Hints:
- By secondary structure, the protein is α/β, with parallel strands linked by helices.
- The chain has helices spanning 22-31, 88-100, 121-134, 149-154, 178-181, 186-196, 214-222, 238-254, and strands at residues 5-7, 17-19, 39-43, 49-56, 62-71, 79-83, 105-110, 142-143, 147-148, 161-165, 184-185, 202-206, 226-230.
- The chain has two domains: 5-71, CATH 2.40.240.20; 79-252, SPOUT methyltransferase, trefoil knot domain (Alpha/beta knot, 3-Layer(aba) Sandwich), CATH 3.40.1280.
- The protein is built from eight helices and 13 strands.
- Strands 6, 7, 8, 9, 10, 11, 12 and 13 form an eight-stranded parallel beta sheet that branches. A five-stranded mixed beta sheet has the order 1-3-4-5-2.
- The longest helix is centred in the C-terminal third of the chain and has 17 residues, at 238-254.
- The chain starts with a strand and ends with a helix.
Amino acid sequence: MPIPRLYVGSALSEGARIELEAGQTHHLLNVLRMSEGDSALIFNGRDGEWSGDLIVLSRKKAEIAIEHQTRAYRPSPDLELLFAPLKKDRTDFTIEKAVELGVRRIQPVLTERTNADHVRPDRLQSLAIGSAEQSERLDVPDIAPPRRLGIVLRDWPAGRILLFADEQGDEKQKPWGGEAGRARAAAEVIAQITSERECAPLSVLIGPEGGFSPEERAYLRLQSFVHPVSLGPRILRAETASTVLLGLVQALWGDR
Ligand code: SAM
């Protein structure tokens, strides 16, 4: 069994005693059936990863006695996912894969055709913590409350680039296909951007099951910070598109 990893909020240093939450204690004692003195790895998103020993105080209370640092802290690349919330399982899949692929922040965006705008950030945040523990990250991405796409674009931070996954960008007979508005292949755009601007903060935008409206597409393509990208001639499910595009970005830029 791999040594379990736990995310905690408290500061980490040699000799610190970290009190575990009830759910974490239950997981270690009753699910993993760990006992006194067994090792665990602890991280908090700012002090790196530390090894510690389990101290069992009761059936429902446990602590970790921190021993030594196993990995120094290193922030994830400044990569952000903007996605239109989907049905619960598909949203969960999107969040889980984005965490595994090392995004630093996740911003659910409400678009004209978003049909699942009831998102519970607290539930998604605990999903993200579980994925961060499993994928051996040293941090957990921040999951922001949902915002309307127009507002997010209005408040766009200077210097940040947005890769707009445009599902209509690869079809000549569509208004945005052809030379005038054709979306370029994602890998080509990412390679060009990352060679020109080594560490430019990057965001990717994935639309809802119903896609982007013509008005949204027109507005996005007017923005100087937006790069429309194609993920090929097939229509991918939103959660597939998110995973593929984030994977391409990390392979070509973030995790090199
Ligand atoms: N209902 C839309 C249609 O038929 O045109 C499809 C939307 S698709 C299910 C959801 C999102 O995934 C799209 O808004 C886009 O962001 C992304 N996506 C899917 N396939 C893509 C592709 N081939 N190229 C770029 N983005 C794609």
